[in-house]
Design brief:
484 residues; alpha+beta; five-stranded mixed sheet; 53% helix; binds iron/sulfur cluster
């Protein structure tokens, strides 16, 4: 029985799917399987163990130059695997192996020469005994290399390495055991592979080879067909309906999805609240969160908005920040910074522009709010008249002159012409000082007096004459200077 219960009919189906996939995608697999069946290990590629096995097949008989060449080539490949630690030379028809591990390697080669595969294997009762014997006689092979060596000779053995173990665990065929000693994990892996081979009635060596093709992109020549590698390509995998790892991954995806939608719900809460209760019911954080729309780096949008307000010292602080400074804040990119700036600018303009409901201009403050934005950034003087209806609501705003304001440029006739046309009840005059200082000049006093006098004659009351400076204003009415 497998530790994790998978019915043998399902296991056979899984195996058939895996085999079909590998045979279809690994070009040389069919031939490799045939070779495996015939135990013609000399056709196998030149891994370290295969090299050693081939040397063993030569019985270290170097009398033929061709064999010596072949052996040298194979040993050179072995030397490459040993990262230059191995020096191979040919002296008097003898291969000389020099390396830090030379003694171990010589011992291994000698052992292999004295125990040619057929003779050696006929004397052992099973792979585990064989492995133990090989390991004892050929220490440079190590446990896994001993498995490789056996497989290279066509011995019915599996390689209990991490690649195959990973697949067995992912499929739920064996438990993941991180605390057990490596030798025990190898034993368990090999035992699971043997049971798998039994269940699917396939020689263990063939199971081993197919698993190598399916799981190992680096060790075999099935680089492009291997699916269940360190980062598995589950979307292409025919086994995913039976794969415990895939199911768990999907669960993980689902829980991630749940987390995401929870975050999104949280992020849409201010919007819903605004719809239900109106913008006034929302805190600054919530209003800012609506502008930001999404959080960032695991923080939801409310956290980002709260932090921004706190770091900036409130809305005024945010208004003072440049786009660059805003973008440098955590969770606020350039686009969000621009959005915030645009919203603040709209709010500012809203403060200084008339509403569509035409609020009455009953004080200098309301007049200033009504006109200030129009004068921002103006580099020359402009004189305007605002005709008012009987409820003191502005009818429109009319420009009378542009350029330095003089008595001749602001003629009462022109100033009141539009007011008469609009049947205005009263008027307000406004002009600006581009210098920023709203203090009235002598000329301003003279113009004001003339306009007030003309208004009295025409029956259109002059409610105020306002001079707009930089962020400030002068009101003739407030100062009691509206005299005729
Ligand atoms: S579904 Fe993914 S993890 Fe499972 S066997 Fe296939 S590739 Fe491997």
């Amino acid at each position: 029985m497998f530790p994790m219960d998978m019915q043998s009919s399902i296991l056979i189906e899984v195996w058939e799917l895996l085999k079909a996939f590998v045979l279809e995608h690994a070009v040389s697999m069919t031939r490799r399987l045939e070779d495996q069946r015939e135990a013609d290990w000399r056709n196998l590629s030149t891994s370290e163990t295969q090299v050693l096995a081939i040397l063993a097949s030569l019985d270290l008989d170097f009398s033929s130059a061709g064999d010596r060449r072949r052996a040298r080539r194979l040993l050179a490949s072995l030397a490459a695997e040993a990262e230059g630690e191995l020096l191979v030379a040919e002296e008097d028809n003898t291969l000389v192996v020099e390396s830090a591990k030379a003694e171990q390697l010589r011992k291994t080669l000698r052992w292999i020469a004295e125990n040619p595969p057929q003779r050696f294997l006929s004397g052992v009762s099973g792979p585990r005994v064989a492995i133990r014997e090989i390991y004892r006689g050929a220490p440079s092979l190590g446990q896994l290399h001993a498995h490789k060596w056996l497989i290279a000779m066509g011995y019915p053995c599996g390689r209990p390495d991490s690649l195959r173990r990973r697949w067995l665990v992912r499929m739920g065929l064996m438990e993941l055991n991180n605390v057990a000693p490596a030798s025990r994990v190898r034993e368990e892996t090999l035992a699971t592979m043997e049971r798998l081979a039994q269940a699917v009635q396939t020689p263990l060596a063939e199971v081993d080879l197919l698993l190598a093709a399916f799981t190992d992109a680096s060790e075999t020549d099935f680089r492009h067909s291997a699916l269940c590698t360190r980062i598995p390509r589950c979307q292409l995998c025919p086994l995913r309906n039976h794969c415990a790892f895939f199911r768990e991954g999907r669960q993980k995806d689902e829980s991630q999805q749940r987390h995401l939608s929870k975050m999104m719900r949280k992020e849409s809460q201010p919007r819903e609240r605004l719809e239900e209760h109106g913008a006034r019911a929302l805190s600054n954080e919530e209003l800012l969160a609506i502008l930001l729309r999404t959080g960032s780096g695991g923080a939801n949008v409310m956290d980002v908005a709260t932090k921004l307000l706190k770091d900036a010292g409130g809305l005024e602080g945010i208004a003072r920040m440049t786009i660059g400074e805003l973008s440098a804040q955590k969770g606020i990119g350039r686009v969000k910074a621009i959005t915030i700036k645009a919203a603040l600018e709209l709010a500012r303009r809203r403060d200084t522009t008339p509403s569509t409901e035409r609020q009455p201009l009953t004080s200098s403050k309301t007049i200033y709010r009504y006109v200030a934005s129009r004068y921002e950034g103006k580099t020359e003087e402009e004189f305007e008249v605002i005709p008012l209806d009987v409820k003191l609501r502005p009818i429109n705003t009319i420009n009378i002159s542009r350029g330095t304001i003089t008595q001749t440029l602001v003629h009462p006739r022109e100033a009141f012409k539009q007011a008469i046309r609009e049947s205005a009840h009263s008027v307000i005059f406004v002009h600006n000082h581009p210098t920023g200082d709203p203090a009235p000049s002598r000329e301003d006093f003279i113009i004001t007096r003339r306009l007030v006098q003309a208004g009295e004659v025409l029956g259109i009351r002059v409610l105020d004459h306002m001079i707009i400076g930089k962020g400030c204003y002068y009101s003739f009415s407030d100062e009691g200077k509206l005299e005729s």
